[in-house]
């Protein structure tokens, strides 16, 4: 009968290990007390009552070298590509620097030739097919090993393409933002010109020119003073009446929008 532990190791969703039941609150508190004061005689009774050493609750250090087991298979801690000789496989191509494309083509031709030979063996001597199947297996393992040697180069090229795509996308987004800011600047400039034309009296204009219904000769000194104030405001090109605060608020809003465009750019 198969070992239950082996079944759990090979399962896609293995159950927790049996020792997870040891991690109770009293046991963890006892572990902390033992670590803080290992010579405390008051802990002797509690430690003797445990069926396992209390320090076994400490997690093991990470494995830095060698192999580790996962899903019932050994895996090297250092992720390196093992050579064919380390795997016990015959290497069919020369050692050292090779032309991988050329060697892959040669192995591909050998695989086709051995497959045709296998078909011939099956038709003439079916009992000898195992040798040819093993030859084909070794050929494909060699081809797969050469392809695996391309993985670092493939990873670098994939990363380069991803970074280029991100850079192109950010450049397009930046160009779109700058175009939007330029359009917004034009609209703000047009609104500012319209606001000035609407709320500011042209320089050199007099109150009598803007209002023909006003009597040219003021009846009282107070009226004369008011007329002089309006005339002076018209000559200086300033806003009339209570529109000054509205113009100031609009100017502040436009300035904030311009600052926002500067920040985006």
TrEMBL record:
<comment type="similarity">
    <text>Belongs to the Mediator complex subunit 7 family.</text>
</comment>
<dbReference type="InterPro" id="IPR037212">
    <property type="entry name" value="Med7/Med21-like"/>
</dbReference>
<feature type="compositionally biased region" description="Low complexity">
    <location>
        <begin position="217"/>
        <end position="233"/>
    </location>
</feature>
<feature type="region of interest" description="Disordered">
    <location>
        <begin position="205"/>
        <end position="245"/>
    </location>
</feature>
<keyword id="KW-0539">Nucleus</keyword>
<dbReference type="GO" id="GO:0016592">
    <property type="term" value="C:mediator complex"/>
</dbReference>
<keyword id="KW-0804">Transcription</keyword>
<dbReference type="InterPro" id="IPR044888">
    <property type="entry name" value="Mediatior_Med7_sf"/>
</dbReference>
<dbReference type="InterPro" id="IPR009244">
    <property type="entry name" value="Mediatior_Med7"/>
</dbReference>
<dbReference type="GO" id="GO:0070847">
    <property type="term" value="C:core mediator complex"/>
</dbReference>
<dbReference type="Pfam" id="PF05983">
    <property type="entry name" value="Med7"/>
</dbReference>
<keyword id="KW-0010">Activator</keyword>
<comment type="function">
    <text>Component of the Mediator complex, a coactivator involved in the regulated transcription of nearly all RNA polymerase II-dependent genes. Mediator functions as a bridge to convey information from gene-specific regulatory proteins to the basal RNA polymerase II transcription machinery.</text>
</comment>
<dbReference type="GO" id="GO:0003712">
    <property type="term" value="F:transcription coregulator activity"/>
</dbReference>
<comment type="subunit">
    <text>Component of the Mediator complex.</text>
</comment>
<keyword id="KW-0805">Transcription regulation</keyword>
<protein>
    <recommendedName>
        <fullName>Mediator of RNA polymerase II transcription subunit 7</fullName>
    </recommendedName>
</protein>
<dbReference type="GO" id="GO:0006357">
    <property type="term" value="P:regulation of transcription by RNA polymerase II"/>
</dbReference>
